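Progress note, sequence design subtask.
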């Protein structure tokens, strides 16, 4: 006769539940350790912002040797300079607003769905970590494959581009910015020239004939230069349409060109400590596993507290430098384009015959 004691059902159930919990916690621990490895491979050490090229602003002053030494020419010079300064002031204000709009999608305290919230989110970090581990293994067996850092950088940049830059919308926004700047320049120049006509009591017909003798050289999106009459340039919006067309095309390329290295920082995964805890967990049981899972969550939270402001500052500095470059680039900057327009007008004024003047 079998005298072995019968195990109560409730005890068997508790043992089964305990084993399920233990296996689940172990699975979570292993995934966290793998994710920690991946975050280390992908993020490495903190990236320091690369030094950016300091561009020299194109001088806006024109040598006195290029101007006729008389009152009329000095007034023309003042009119051109005033139009230039109004346009550049408008450009700086518009670019500052554009920059602020970009940063509001990077980090907005009133919005829980900005880029940094996504980047430092617990599940995002776990996902990136696991992908980093998988990519590190892939690269180990296939040297032609992307490294873990390159793979994660690619994914983060895609999210950053879609969430913050929004290229198609940015193109339209920047075209509007350039159109606004150009309209300010042409309307200000038209107003200033009209004041000169009134000041010297020049008949309107004579003045229009004089302005039609002045040629403005503008550059299209293909880099080709073509002449416009100053009268047409300042009236009817033609100047505003052509003035900054190339700048609008080039600008968005500048913003996206090197942003990749600015939007990825170390995730701070202390993976070695977590990995070594596996051995201890085997001896100490599921309780240690729970502690490690909580530890990982705290680690990611602390990482955000330390590196979120660093990453925000890095992105903000990058956008600031890029908007400065859009303004003052020596080849396609807004200042350079307007300066070239201004220089062509000055040359044409210098070579033209001054109309009959009646000084007040």
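Output:
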């Amino acid at each position: 006769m079998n005298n072995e004691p019968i195990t109560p059902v409730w005890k068997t159930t508790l043992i089964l539940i305990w084993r399920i919990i233990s296996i689940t916690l172990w699975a979570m621990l292993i995934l966290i350790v793998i994710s920690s490895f991946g975050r280390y491979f992908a993020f490495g050490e903190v990236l320091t912002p690369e030094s950016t090229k300091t561009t020299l602003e194109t001088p806006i002053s024109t040598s006195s040797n290029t101007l006729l030494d008389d009152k009329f020419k000095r007034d023309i010079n003042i009119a051109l300079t005033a139009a230039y300064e109004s346009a550049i002031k408008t450009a700086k204000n518009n670019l500052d607003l554009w920059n602020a709009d970009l940063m509001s999608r990077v980090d907005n305290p009133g919005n829980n769905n900005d880029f940094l919230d996504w980047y430092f989110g617990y599940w995002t970090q776990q996902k990136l970590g696991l992908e980093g581990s998988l990519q590190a293994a892939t690269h180990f067996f296939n040297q032609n494959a992307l490294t873990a850092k390159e793979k994660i950088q690619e994914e983060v940049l895609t999210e950053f581009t879609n969430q913050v830059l929004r290229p198609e919308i940015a193109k339209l926004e920047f075209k509007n910015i350039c159109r606004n700047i150009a309209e300010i320049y042409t309307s200000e120049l038209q107003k200033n020239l009209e004041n000169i006509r009134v000041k010297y009591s020049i008949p309107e017909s004579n003045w229009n004939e004089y302005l039609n003798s002045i040629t403005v050289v503008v550059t299209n999106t293909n880099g080709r230069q073509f002449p416009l009459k100053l009268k047409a340039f300042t009236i009817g919006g033609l100047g505003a349409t052509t003035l900054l067309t190339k700048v609008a095309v080039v600008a968005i390329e500048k913003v996206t060109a090197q942003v990749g290295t600015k939007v990825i920082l170390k995730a701070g995964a202390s993976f070695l400590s977590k990995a070594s805890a596996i051995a201890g967990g085997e001896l100490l049981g599921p309780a240690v596993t729970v502690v490690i899972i909580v530890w990982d969550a705290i680690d990611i939270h602390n990482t955000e507290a330390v590196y979120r402001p660093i990453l925000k500052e890095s992105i903000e500095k990058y956008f600031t430098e890029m908007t400065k470059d859009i303004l003052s680039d020596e080849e396609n900057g807004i200042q350079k384009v307007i300066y070239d327009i201004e220089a062509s007008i000055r040359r044409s004024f210098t070579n033209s015959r001054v109309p009959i003047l009646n000084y007040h």
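Residues 52-116+134-271+303-351 form one domain. Work on this subtask will continue into the next period as scheduled.
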